[in-house]
Amino acid sequence: RLFALSERLRAARLAGDDQLDSTVVNFYFAEQKRQYFAGREQWDSTLFWNAAALHQAEQVLNQSKESALWQGKWLDAVLNQTYFLLFQTDRDTARLSEAIRYAQAAERYPDEGAFYYENRYLLQTNLAHALWLRQKPGDRELALQHYRQFLQNNLSTYDPWELLLKDFRDLARAGVKWPDMAGLIQQIRPADGAITDDDWAELGIRPPG
Prior knowledge:
The protein is built from ten helices and no strands. It is mainly α. Helix 5 (93-113) runs antiparallel to helix 6 and helix 6 runs antiparallel to helix 7 (139-151). The longest helix has 21 residues, at 43-63. It is globular, with a radius of gyration of 19 Å. The termini are far apart.
């Protein structure tokens, strides 16, 4: 019922205002559906609708490259895409490679355009996750490098280690199989980084003795 109503509202908005850019309307429509499916933890549908929002944001950005608003929305959609591509149970290396390409392109974008992106540090975590999960030659070393760089950030809102642990727990709960998670944690855990027995349990790992 919610979707039927939003479809009617979308059609009415497009029909009632000739000046309204249909691409912008379609972006917000896709965003609404992405949020809905993410709230229900239906990750395939979440990924589908985020890809739709990303496409629409890219179309708008191509028409107004100087718009800080749409630069930010495009980067947010790319950030989401790099995250939702990780939600899989069979370690599809093609999907992981896609996440890596998106993250690398988005990391370069602020530098190339002198645009400040406040969530840039999260791209680094998603890039590290995708590299560690993909497990191609050299991926582990690169992942460790990105994890360690991320953990050196001085974030005003979050503790980097707690944020990283939350990612690990959320992805594990969604069915993502982490190769050698205990070994990864041992290699990147800060000296003052706390991890509880409940954290280990959520990761499906017996706490190291």
